[in-house]
């Protein structure tokens, strides 16, 4: 049974692509409302208020917890995704993420229960990371393992579109709340609305996910190979090179995105003096470029190859690091240019990334391997990026934030340089 000849409602291209897109959109919406709240809300409500800088850094520390939980999610959900199938595992991952997010919206604050408040917040953030660690890899495989020949990067970019769509929804919700509520209302109860309302989105996502079929590539693999007993152990032992290369290839992507979102929001609403409403609008403008360049990069990756496409983009990100500080210091026009350019480059690197990482591994450990590479890159590239960037900007100057990005891009460039092209691989026979 080949991918191209599989039929049936459960394998309908529209249904498969929609299922991969809506799941990641919901997951990233949940993930990003936390990122926004970590800048705007949590430092004031969940940590001692006597030192604003310390409260902000503590909030960023809870933000980072999810990235350390994501590889655990990769191992946990990847284990079952490689043994029992992509579909059931994706449902479990979505539930884990959704429940954690809703509970955040119900938590009491530091003023109400003291130190227990940030501890409970950290626990819920861990649950978010665990769920997203299992979600992303499964959604990418749902798309790529159903893709016809020559369109794998195109199919693989649909779950990637969930990132900008989720960000647009999360920023849009916070912007509407900021515009319609007073500060007192927003900090008393308004900030809880996005977290609690995500339960509706999760229910929609579950309904869609339960209507899809198992991927034909995985179904075929089960007919010819017994499931791997411990997929994570096999990835580490037999595919260590792919694991390291995949992690470093994705490094610049994570650093770039969280500098353009979490760090930029922090810097814009403090050092640059913008209100949260003003800067959220500016970020939404930049995110449009992120969304537009994802499909463009997928087309390039299918036509010219994944490696060649990402090499050029990594070099461009390295160059962008040297103009980041001057642009952010050049008034509103410069800030808009920095956000548009940085997030356009983000789309170009993010579009083919899921496809590239999935193609590094054989079917029997692909869920675990691709997820681990992606989420380990999250630890090294994203978990501490807002913290490091804030520290660099305050102690060394804003230019060093750009140098930090350039170094990450050069590391990704090097990993791509020594990697192989994977465009012509047959996933059903690897």
Automatic annotation (TrEMBL):
InterPro entries: MFS (IPR011701), MFS_dom (IPR020846), MFS_trans_sf (IPR036259), MHS_symport (IPR004736). The chain crosses the membrane at residues 16-35, 55-78, 90-113, 119-142, 154-177, 189-208, 242-267, 279-298, 310-328, 334-351, 372-392, 398-418. Keywords: Cell inner membrane, Cell membrane, Membrane, Transmembrane, Transmembrane helix, Transport. It is found in: Cell inner membrane. It comes from the Bacteria. One of its GO terms (molecular function) is transmembrane transporter activity. The keyword Transmembrane applies. One of its GO terms (cellular component) is plasma membrane. The keyword ATP-binding does not apply. It is a multi-pass membrane protein. Residues 16-423 form the Major facilitator superfamily (MFS) profile domain. Pfam families: MFS_1 (PF07690). NCBIfam families: 2A0106. This is Metabolite-proton symporter.
């Amino acid at each position: 049974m080949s991918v191209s000849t599989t039929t049936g409602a459960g394998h309908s291209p529209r249904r498969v692509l929609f299922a991969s897109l809506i799941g990641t959109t919901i997951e990233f919406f949940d993930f990003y409302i936390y990122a926004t709240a970590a800048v705007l809300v949590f430092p004031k409500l969940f940590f001692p208020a006597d030192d604003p800088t310390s409260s902000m850094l503590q909030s960023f520390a809870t933000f980072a917890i999810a990235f350390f939980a994501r590889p655990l999610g990769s191992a946990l959900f990847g284990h079952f995704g490689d043994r029992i199938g992509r579909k059931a595992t994706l449902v479990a991952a979505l539930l884990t993420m959704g429940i954690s997010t809703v509970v955040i919206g119900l938590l009491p604050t530091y003023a109400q229960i003291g130190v227990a408040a940030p501890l409970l917040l950290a626990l819920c953030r861990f649950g978010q990371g665990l769920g997203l660690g299992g979600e992303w890899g499964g959604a990418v495989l749902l798309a790529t393992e159903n893709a016809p020949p020559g369109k794998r990067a195109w199919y693989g970019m649909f779950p990637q579109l969930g990132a900008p769509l989720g960000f647009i929804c999360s920023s849009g919700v916070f912007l509407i709340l900021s515009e319609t509520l007073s500060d007192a209302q927003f900090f008393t109860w308004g900030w809880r609305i996005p977290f609690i309302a995500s339960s509706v989105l999760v229910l929609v996502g579950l309904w869609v996910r339960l209507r899809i079929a198992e991927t034909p590539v995985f179904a075929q693999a089960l007919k010819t190979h017994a499931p791997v007993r411990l997929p994570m152990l096999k990835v580490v032992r037999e595919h260590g090179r792919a694991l390291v290369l995949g992690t470093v290839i994705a490094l610049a992507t994570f650093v770039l995105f969280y500098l353009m979102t979490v760090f930029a929001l922090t810097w814009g609403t403090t050092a640059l003096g913008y209100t949260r409403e003003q800067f959220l609008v500016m970020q939404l403008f930049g995110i449009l470029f992120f969304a537009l360049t994802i499909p463009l990069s997928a087309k390039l990756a299918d036509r010219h190859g994944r490696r060649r496409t990402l090499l050029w983009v990594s070099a461009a990100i390295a160059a962008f690091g040297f103009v980041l500080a001057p642009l952010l210091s050049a008034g509103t026009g410069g800030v808009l240019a920095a956000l548009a350019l940085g997030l356009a480059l983000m789309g170009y690197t993010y579009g083919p990334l899921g496809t590239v990482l999935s193609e590094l591994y054989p079917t029997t450990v692909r869920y675990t391997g691709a997820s681990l590479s992606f989420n380990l890159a999250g630890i090294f590239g994203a978990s501490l990026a807002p913290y490091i960037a804030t520290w660099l900007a305050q102690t060394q100057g804003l230019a060093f934030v750009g140098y930090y990005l350039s170094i990450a891009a050069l590391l990704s460039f090097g990993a791509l340089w020594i990697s192989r092209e994977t465009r012509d691989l047959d996933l059903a026979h690897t």
